[in-house]
Amino acid sequence: MRTSQYLLSTMKETPADAEVISHKLMLRAGMIRRLASGMYTYLPSGVRVLRKVEQIVREEMNKAGAIEVLMPLVQPAELWQESGRWEKMDAELLRFVDRHQRDFVLGPTHEEVITDLVRREITSYKQLPLNLYQIQTKFRDERRPRFGVMRAREFLMKDAYSFHLSQESLQQTYDAMYSAYCNIFNRLGLDYRPVLADTGAIGGSVSHEFHVLAASGEDAIAFSDTSDYAANIEMAEAKAPAGPRPAPTQQLTQVATPGAKTVAEVAALLQQPASQISKTLIVYAAKASDDAPQTLVALVLRGDHELNEIKAEKLPQVASPLVFASEEEIRAVMGAGPGSLGPVKCPLPLIVDRSAAHLADFSCGANQDGFHLTGVNWDRDVTDYQVADLRNVVEGDASPCGFGKLVIKRGIEVGHIFQLGDKYSQAMKAGVLNEEGKHQIMTMGCYGVGVSRIVAAAIEQNHDERGIIWPDAIAPFQVVLIPMNMHKSVRIAEATELLYQQLTAAGIEVLFDDRKERPGVMFADMELVGIPHHIVIGERNLDNRQVEYKNRRSGATELLAIDEVLAFVNQQLKR
RNA sequence: CGGUGAUUGGCGCAGCUUGGUAGCGCACUUGGUUUGGGUCCAAGGGGUCGCAGGUUCAAAUCCUGCAUCACCGACCA
After folding, report:
1. Which of the listed CATH numbers 3.90.78.10, 3.90.960.10, 3.40.50.11810, 1.10.1740.10 matches domain A253-388?
2. How many helices (H) and strands (E) does chain A have?
3. How far does the CA of A552 sit from the C1' of B50, in Å?
4. Which residues of chain A are under the pLDDT cut of 50?
5. Å from A13 (CA) to B60 (C1')?
6. Closest CA-bearing residue to C1' of B13
7. Which of A119, A230, A248, A529 is least surrounded, with the fewest CB atoms within 10 Å of its CB?
8. Over the stretch A298-331, which tens digit does the pLDDT of each residue have?
9. A431 neighbors A440 (Cβ within 8 angstroms)
């Protein structure tokens, strides 16, 4: 490709609304342009990278035995009503009507469509297991699109769905997908980790996320510093502190704490660390039946810990989704407002986090505005309570695997695999005849890769102050030819032309910068775009039949005999 | 969904307080100059000042409403 025939569209300045590095660089390097909030047009360089990622994903899926299909982006509402997600999903599901007043959605994912397809096509156990995938645009009307294509509303995703009659078969495919994903991210050249994950709204049991490690990642991941344990922080179990709880040494005392409401204020007033103070959160209790009156539950945490809403929701006593009680609701039962609450003489059922339950002589609200209690002790001052894991793990906690301590890092979720079970197949009655000739509901797995998000994640991990540094596998071009003053020098033009033809004929993706630009402009543009291998053709070196090679990542340069360029590039690309 | 802020040429911004001929840098076009790291000089083209309404002799500027976009938050006890 010659730049004169290409749409390079690089920019010196960054549009003001770009926040993260990948977003800025994708705009500046001419990969994307914003059309509306969370929706982007891909320019030629962007498409090239996107297609490469897509192709690697496709090859590894095929290798792992999955079969490609393509389903519509627009889906009829009936399927979503059948699965129950029409009511369950909120505004994230974009709905609209066609000219016949029929309801449709823009597919945020394709469980319903694939389950509908499979229940029609698959009738016998002999046809199982089956793993179908597609690479298709999705639309999720995100609450808050941000970071360019990293959290866009419209994005490209590979999604696969597998169908089985037994857990063993599902596990086999799940394992195959796990290793296919490792192959994908290895080939992409990214620093990634598979981590244990919560199954969230999609449902199911076993689940792993694949994260590209980057400081700008939206997710926190907990790693053991000695084993290979890794889990999303939402999922990581907070173990009870080691050893027995210290014995009480202090008397229960009420102290006036006028105006002190937050843990920080109370800690300052009482001259105690936040870890010696408990905080009490009031949330909705789970209802026994739909028409039962709403009751409340009190959750108790150490002052320096955060509630993990996912863990709380999973408790049978707690309403799901989690709802915090309003101040009026709290006052009606507790007789005091938020900021003065505590477990002593608490009229609500108490659920205490493991770490909070390990405290002795701690402080808490007195359930009377403007007062706190000190010297509080479990079992002496509070008798009726239950202990559970309620909090997010923090750096330095004991690892749940039993080995080492936890380290917290940030990651970008680029892949997610689930064992779904029969959630969709049951709701949509997708079954086959088994060996005994009896109807049996299939069990399912689903496996996603965020193709467009990978592009952004790769940049987050591979850039410097001059621009993008593409891994060879996904670079828009592998090699760029940069001639010095080609428009004045026939020798340069001829030598560059020859190299261009040689490399192109060898199947290498070459960009030939034939613009009538000054050298500095070409260098700057090609570094911004991130092409991994640069060949500079200049008069001086040409006298010795040499050209200069420059590696974008290392910055190292060396002189090459002009006849050796092809062999050298092949070796660089490990072909 | 709540809070804050922005909207002036393709991009980045000034002008608005105190109403009176719409400006700067980059980019673009033409000519010259320069040529191994975003040269320099000159001459040009390009703007319904987000939209609608109001105040005024006069509105980018003041007032009202709307739209779009961005950032922050969604632990608060």
Report:
1. 3.90.960.10
2. 15, 30
3. 42
4. none
5. 25
6. A16
7. A248
8. 999 998 888 888 888 888 888 877 888 878 888 8
9. yes
| CATH class assigned to A3-206+417-460 | alpha beta
User: Residue A37: CA atoms inside 13 Å, Cβ hemisphere, count?
Assistant: 7
Q: How far is the CA of A145 from the C1' of B2 (A)?
A: 16
- In chain A, domain spans: 3-206+417-460, 253-388, 479-574
Nearest nt (C1') from A322 Cα: B75
Distance A570 CA to B69 C1' (A): 46
Token pair listed for A259: 């105006």
Task: Kindly state the tokens that stand for A88.
Answer: 């369950």
Q: Which CA-bearing residue is nearest the C1' of B69? A: A37
User: Tokens 């909070």 belong to which residue?
Assistant: A356
Contact (Cβ atoms closer than 8 angstroms) between residue A342 and residue A278: yes
Shortest-distance nucleotide from A309 CA to C1':
B75
Name the fold adopted by A479-574.
Answer: Rossmann fold (3.40.50)
CA of A461 to C1' of B29 (A): 40
Query: Is A210 exposed, middle or buried (CB count within 10 Å of its CB: 0-12, 13-18, 19+)?
Result: buried
Helix (H, G, I), strand (E, B) or coil at A419: strand
Give the amino acid at A392.
N
Q: Shortest CA distance to A40 belongs to which of A30, A53, A51?
A: A30
The helix (run of H) or strand (run of E) holding residue A170 is helix A167-188
A525 nearest nucleotide via C1' and CA: B38
> Does residue A161 contact residue A133 with C-beta atoms inside 8 Å?
yes
Determine the nucleotide nearest to A305 by Cα–C1' distance.
B75
The span from the CA of A405 to the CA of A127, in Å, is: 47
Beta bridge partners of A199: none
**pLDDT tens digit sequence for A239-288:** 888 889 999 999 999 998 887 778 888 888 888 888 899 989 888 888 87
- According to the model, what pLDDT value does residue A270 have? 87
Please state the ipTM of this predicted complex: 0.92
Q: Which residue is nearest to nucleotide B36 (CA to C1')?
A: A519
Dist CA A4 CA A8 (whole Å): 9
Where on the phi/psi map is residue A344: left (φ > 0), alpha (ψ -120 to 50), or beta? beta
How far apart are alpha carbons A212 and A209 in whole angstroms? 10
pLDDT digits 0-9 by tens, A547-560: 999 999 999 999 99
CA–CA–CA angle A70, A509, A486 (5° rounding): 145
Q: Are A430 and A120 in contact (CB under 8 A)?
A: no
Please give the angle made by the CA atoms of A507, A470 and A210, to the nearest 5 degrees: 110
**Protein A289 CA to nucleic acid B77 C1', in Å?**
28
Q: What's the alpha-carbon Rg for chain A, to the nearest Å?
A: 30
